[in-house]
Structures are given as C-alpha cells and as structure tokens.
Write a structure and sequence with these properties.
The structure is a single chain. With 130 residues, the chain is α+β, with helices and mostly antiparallel strands. It has a single domain (21-125), classed as 60s Ribosomal Protein L30, Chain: A. The chain has two helices and six strands. Strands 1-2-3-6-4-5 form a six-stranded mixed β-sheet, with helices on one face. Helix 2 (86-96) links the parallel strand 4 and strand 5 (103-108). Helix 1 runs parallel beside helix 2. The radius of gyration is 14 Å and the shape is globular. The protein starts with a strand and ends in a 5-residue tail after the last strand.
C-alpha cells in the first residue's frame, strides 16, 4: 500500500521525525498536533481555548491539504495537560465539529513542552466517496 506524506504549505520543521499527516488508501492519519507556531514555540500560553483553536485549525489544514474536510474526520485522540481545561476545549471542539461528531478519547497527561495544554491526533477518511 503506497503512502503519501501530507505537509501543508508553511509547515515548520517538526521537533521529532514525523510528518503532519500520512495518507494511505484514502485514510489520513494526522500526527499529534500541539499548539506550536512554525518555529515550534508554544502559542497562546495559558489559554486552553486559544490553544485548542490553534491545534484544530492546524489539523484542518492537514485534512484540507489531503483533499478532505473536517466532516471526513472519524476519530480524534485528545491529550490534555489538566482536566480543568476540559469544558473550554470541548466548547472549541464543538465549533469544528458542529454536526455528527467523530469518535474520540481524551486523557490527561504530560505533554512535550510544559506550556502546551493540549495535543490532538486525528484520523480522517478522505478517499473516494460512494
């Protein structure tokens, strides 16, 4: 099965050996996405809502670069630094998924940079529609 790296225009150099997305057989796997600018600095320090919006906007860019839309997202893996931010993040999440929601899970854990409050990885089916 051939795979294709999905790297939207303007993407910075990752802090580890990965690409923003990988497309294989019409399924897009979006790497864990943190609230980073193109230089891997955390944006919106201390603001979980703004960080969630930044992360989901970044994911949207990867999905669109693969030829899909956010309606094609079928699964999200959400990592939070603090459960106190859960409601704020859910409010922003609902803006990006207003209709039928994707399946997901959410865990609390430490993230790669201390100022990051959220990380999301996604799966989307962007292949041929029946």
């Amino acid at each position: 099965m051939p795979k294709q790296a999905i790297i939207p225009p303007g993407t910075g150099v990752p802090i580890a050996p990965f690409v923003p997305g990988t497309l294989a057989d019409g399924v897009l796997y979006v790497s864990g996405t943190l609230p980073f600018d193109k230089d891997n600095n955390v944006v919106h320090v201390g603001d979980a809502s703004a960080q969630a919006r930044h992360v989901l906007t970044t994911i949207k860019g990867v999905v669109e670069a693969a030829g899909g839309t956010m309606d094609d997202v079928t699964f999200n893996q959400i990592m939070l630094k603090d459960w106190a931010d859960y409601a704020k993040i859910n409010a922003v999440y609902a803006e990006f998924f207003p209709g039928t929601k994707p399946a997901r899970y959410c865990i609390q854990c430490g993230l790669v940079k201390p100022d990051a409050l959220i990380e999301i990885a996604s799966i989307a089916h962007v292949g041929k529609k029946a």
